[in-house]
Amino acid sequence: MNTTEQSLPVQQAIETRHSIRKYKQEPIPQQDLNKIFELVRLSPSAWNLQPWRFHVVTDNDLKEKLEEAAYGQKQVTSAPAVVVVTSDMEDVLANIADTVHPGLPPERKEEEVANLSGFFNGMTVEDRAQWGLTQTNIAFGFLMLAVQGYGYSSNPMLGFDQEKVRELLNLPGHVKFAGILPIGKADSEGYPHHRFDLEKIATFH
């Protein structure tokens, strides 16, 4: 049975998602990875700039090095695939015309390119990198939901040596990290949800 037939409704995917740190030693079919990222690429972003970049690591040797960079956290090598989620605003800026909707008339496209280039070139590299990271975090959330929806589990991680990971993946210095996400079939149960009550997090005006 393919994963499309097993996919979960959004509500069920959200309610059943737990952080998992031990995975079954089963590779994830490339077809499933493609389906997950076909959904993730639909994530929204301001001005449709899509600054997110996903580095999907399945090579065991590289996963071992990533585990070391993640201070020995075993879920990195337990998972059949590990996604390093990054944001690259310099790549976006270098190819800004690619983000403009193809349905616009040529003069509107030129205007959009000029406006976006002017806005972001007026920022420092660091400031626009941070701006891109806020957008990339949206895609990170979509990724976790897509993974769960297709019957896999995950564990978002921020505990890792960014410079070591940058070196391992040969990433430029301006690239920002949203996090690392091991994914695979769960071989353990996550902890029950412990979340704030609605009254604490939501104020209705």
Automatic annotation (TrEMBL):
Coiled coil ranges: none
Gene3D superfamilies: NADH Oxidase
Domain annotation Nitroreductase: ranges: 14-185
GO molecular function terms listed in the Swiss-Prot or TrEMBL record: oxidoreductase activity
Sequence intervals crossing the membrane: none
Keywords recorded for this protein, A-Z: Oxidoreductase
Family: Belongs to the nitroreductase family.
PANTHER family documented for this protein: NAD(P)H NITROREDUCTASE YDGI-RELATED (PTHR43673), NADH DEHYDROGENASE_NAD(P)H NITROREDUCTASE XCC3605-RELATED (PTHR43673:SF10)
Protein name, entry field: Nitroreductase family protein
Source organism (scientific name): Peribacillus glennii
Source lineage: Bacteria, Bacillati, Bacillota, Bacilli, Bacillales
